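Deliverable D2.4 — example input (structure tokens):
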């Protein structure tokens, strides 16, 4: 069996920590067994490894998430890259074409698709392992995992099993689905033994490949990438699952939760405060998450979330927090981005009437990591090193740099940097074009040392 995690979406319901560059699954707000802060994707990948599924697992993600994925779970995790964000049907179709034409997976192989951000106990993945045998024994076209509800929730979709069931060793035949009913309707569904739909699908690869053939989509990954923008923006549930008759579901009795909103996420956080600030003792069930160096004080306010990041500040009653998606429509790009080599935080973004732009950033580079050796065609930069030491190269000439050094990089000037220790810099870049063009020569420091004869690596 091949396991594929779907990592997409911007997670706007967890604004301001999540944005288009940093989705909710990358937020380090959960605790592991060592009380270290980890993200949802780090947590679930650790559970996959413990379950023995790591060597047969892939992650389907967008181009914008590649660096962050490598940074959080390592550069060796196999990724299936979406050229743009669409919906779960296009993502799963592209996944099937990749497994078929690039990974050469057999058409009889069972494929399991999971969201990347479920909050589950480790034995959930033993239920995932059952999907392969379930498909083989029942000859179903699709096998799902359904969570036994603990209360009548209006937030989740429901899987309703057939009333008359043959003996399938606990596996149930599926009658139909109900998307996010009212709480009253959900209570009635639970009486019919309905299950929460947790977004886990499994099928033989050949089943989905045949669907792609019927729809006239190319089966080769490279060709489907080129046509990806033409695929409908529709969920896999609507495009495939609800049009399939032969479906079974494996009931799961353990703990499961969707951490898509601040009220559900804070229920699983190990501490009430992350970052600088103070919460008064009479602030009951209140959480503070602060990514800035400015202290935040919360006094006498209960059942709220205060979240602070370079993208903005949120103060919300926990019960109202799911509504944030309806209010966030600010005309700004991501103000914080995590990169494979470090991170970038935008401090100021000025646009002038003559078309010139001046953007100020604080940039961190991890020890041993480096920028590519490149030149900017439409902007110049000034770097002020405020922390650490490194090696800087400009037009083939090397120099050591440390805190206090100021570096001027004119347009069309080749340059690169390697951090010897953890470094931070204030970077100011200016130019007359929003769309800066970059000419990159080398991505690794070893390539640069080999081809730039004037560079001496120490």
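Example output (designed residues):
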């Amino acid at each position: 069996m091949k396991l594929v995690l779907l990592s997409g979406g911007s997670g706007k319901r967890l604004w301001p920590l999540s944005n288009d560059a940093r989705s909710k699954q990358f937020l380090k707000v959960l605790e592991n067994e060592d009380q270290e802060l980890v993200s949802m994707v780090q947590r679930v990948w650790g559970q996959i490894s413990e379950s023995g599924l790591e060597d047969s697992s892939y992650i389907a993600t967008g181009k914008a998430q590649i660096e962050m994925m490598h940074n959080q779970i390592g550069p060796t995790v196999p990724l299936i890259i979406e050229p743009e964000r669409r919906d779960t049907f296009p993502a799963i179709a592209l996944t099937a074409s990749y497994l078929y034409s690039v990974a050469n997976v057999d058409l009889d192989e069972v494929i399991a698709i999971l969201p990347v951000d479920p909050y589950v106990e480790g034995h959930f993945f033993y239920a995932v392992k059952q999907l392969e045998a379930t498909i083989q024994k029942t000859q179903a076209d699709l096998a799902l995992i359904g969570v036994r509800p603990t209360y009548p929730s209006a937030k989740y979709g429901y899987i309703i099993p057939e009333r008359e069931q043959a003996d399938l060793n606990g596996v149930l035949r599926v009658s139909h689905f109900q998307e996010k009913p009212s709480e009253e309707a959900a209570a009635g569904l639970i009486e019919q033994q309905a299950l929460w739909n947790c977004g886990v699908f499994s099928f033989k690869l050949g089943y989905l490949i045949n669907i792609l053939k019927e729809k006239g989509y190319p089966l080769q990954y490279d060709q489907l990438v080129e046509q990806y923008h033409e695929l409908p923006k529709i969920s896999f549930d609507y495009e495939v699952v609800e049009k399939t008759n032969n479906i079974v579901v494996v009931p799961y009795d353990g703990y499961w939760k969707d951490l898509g909103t601040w009220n559900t996420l804070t229920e699983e956080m190990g501490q009430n405060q992350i970052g600088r600030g103070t919460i008064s003792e009479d602030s009951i069930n209140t959480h503070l998450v602060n990514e800035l160096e400015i202290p935040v004080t919360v006094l006498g306010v209960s059942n709220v979330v205060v979240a602070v990041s370079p993208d903005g500040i949120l103060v919300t009653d926990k019960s109202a927090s799911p509504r944030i998606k309806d209010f966030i429509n600010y005309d700004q790009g991501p103000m914080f981005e995590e990169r494979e080599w470090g991170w970038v935080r935008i401090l100021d973004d000025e646009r002038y009437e003559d078309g010139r732009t001046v953007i100020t950033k604080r940039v961190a580079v991890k020890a041993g990591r480096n920028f590519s050796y490149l030149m900017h065609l439409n902007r110049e930069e000034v770097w002020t090193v405020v922390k650490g030491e490194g090696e800087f190269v400009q037009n083939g000439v090397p120099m050591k740099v440390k805190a206090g050094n100021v570096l001027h990089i004119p347009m069309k000037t080749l340059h690169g940097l390697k951090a010897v220790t953890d470094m931070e810099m204030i970077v100011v870049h200016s130019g007359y074009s929003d769309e800066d063009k970059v000419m990159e020569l080398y991505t690794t420091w070893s390539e640069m040392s080999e081809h730039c004869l004037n560079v001496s690596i120490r």
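The longest strand covers residues 195-204.
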